[in-house]
Each structure stands twice: as structure tokens, then as C-alpha cells.
Amino acid sequence: MERRTIGAAALAVGAVGLGCMPMSWAYSSSRQRGEESVRAVHRALDLGSTLLDTADMYGPFTNELLVGRVLKERRQDAFVSTKVGLLVGEQHIVANGRPGYVKRACDASLRRLQTDVIDLYQLHRADPEVPVEETWGAMAELVRAGKVRALGLCAVGARGGRRLGTRLHDATIRQLQRVQQVFPVSAVQAELSVWSPEALEALLPWCEARGIGFLAAMPLGNGFLTGTLTPGQGFEPDDVRARHPRFTAEMMASNQPIVAGLRRVAARHGEEVTPAQVALAWALAQGRHVVATPGTKQERWVTQNAGAEALRLSTQDLAEVAGLPGAQGSWD
Asked: I need a labelling partner for 124 at 20 to 30 A (CA). Which of 54, 85, 86, 326 fits?
């Protein structure tokens, strides 16, 4: 697989990584099977999808434990990315950016991941009660201590970050400008997909101009862009899509032209090419500093996703995808 570099440290990873969250968190808990997920992680590494993206809050904690089972055997094959800054309660999630907590959380993640160093340590969310420079300074100390190789920042929540008269990612860019004064940012993780292209407006160019890697989160639109979901199929109560404004039966039906467009492009490249692969290839085509991190818990989807790296979209393909209708949601 083609390798791309993240940040000034030029850390090399496969162009398509693996989002590990669905194995333990947020998607259909009845289908979360540890052994199947472990096989999926092994398959990703076999195919060159070296970036494994997890977080301490996924589970919470169980996702890091699962990834750690693979790292115990194959640490040299993997690029490990995990996150800090969010605590999961019974019915709520809160931010914690206190420096002492950050350092303790890092040590705990290292134990769960069964490694002595984290390749990319990301701030999941800034704590509104703590200056982000203080949190970032504590993370920088972890780099100097040899526990972390590089630092990344996750974008402010997409829907919550928008205010009247501002662009979607303005708040994230302001955070980035502040923490860059403390210690270099190596990567930014934000949603980027055919049906959520907002990062192209300002955030992606900002990163590219500064040599910062961009981790494209949810590049398959929470599974919708794969074309495998049926309008009205329903989701388990703990599945995030059960409350997502684009996944009501009405909105899923309304957004089918997006999938149909991806199918048309895929058909030009051969019978084996899928809408999901076109969606991932589109994300990768947005810049040499972009790494796609589709999430899955099954080997067959890992294999399909990795195959998208070899798909080269033509100028016509990219124009056709750009001309697809925007996604609709029940909150629009």
C-alpha cells in the first residue's frame, strides 16, 4: 500500500488506516465480537493499513485493550493512534484536560495497548475549564519523556462548532493556532466524506499549508456511502445512527442519489469496484497529506477498504462526485 507521511516528523503510514471504534463502541453492540475484531486488525496490518485509530473512551477502555492484544504480537507492524480528553459517564461524556489527568491517562493507555510508546496521541476535545495550552503542554511533556512520538488534535464537534456567520471549522483552526505556539501539531482528525465535505473549505487547506497530516474520519459516512444500508432498516438503540438526522428512513431514502452516483463511478472502473471504494478514493484524492480512517470490525470490509488505495479516479470521476447532491438530514 502507498504510504503517506504525517506531520513534520514524517511518520509514515498506509494511505488507508483502520478506525477501531466500531469494534467496541457506538455501533450495534450485538455484533461486536472480540475474536472477529482481532482478526480484522491483523488483516489490516497484513494489507499495509498500518494506522490503528482508537481512544481511551471507546468502550470505555475496551477498545484499547482489544488493540493491545494485536500489538503484543505485532507492534513493529503498526502505527498506534489513541486519544485523551473525554471521560464517559453513565449517561454523559465530559472533557478533562487537566495536565495531571492527561499524564495518568497516557500511562493507562500504554498499559492497555501493551506498548511503551504511542505513535500519535490526540486531544479528543479541549476542556472548556482548562486553557488548551496547558493541556497541550502536558501532552508535549509526554513526547519529551519518550512516551509519545507525535501529537494530534481532533476537530471540534461538527454540528456544535458552527455559529451564525462562521465556517464550520473556525473553532478548530483557532485551537490549532493556539497549540501550535506550544508544540507542533502533527495531525488533525476531522470528518471528511462525499456527504460531509466541509473540511475542504478551510481546515484541510490550513493543514496542507503547514505540512500537517489530515486523518479523514468517517470517510464512508457512518456506513451510508457503502450502499449496504437499506432505508427504514432500523438500528439498535445503542447505535449512534439511531439518533443521527441523516439516518431516519425518510432521509436515507432522500440521500440515495448520492450512493447511486458513487455506483455509476464505480461501474466505470470494473465490476469488482464498490461505492465504498470510490468514496475512499475520493477522500485520498483530496491531498497527499490525507489518510482515510474508515471504521469496521469485519475482515471483508477491511480488505475492501484497503483496496481503495489502488483506485485512481479520473478528472471526470472527481467532477461527477463533486456534482452529487448534498446530504439531507431531518434537522436541516
From this structure: 326
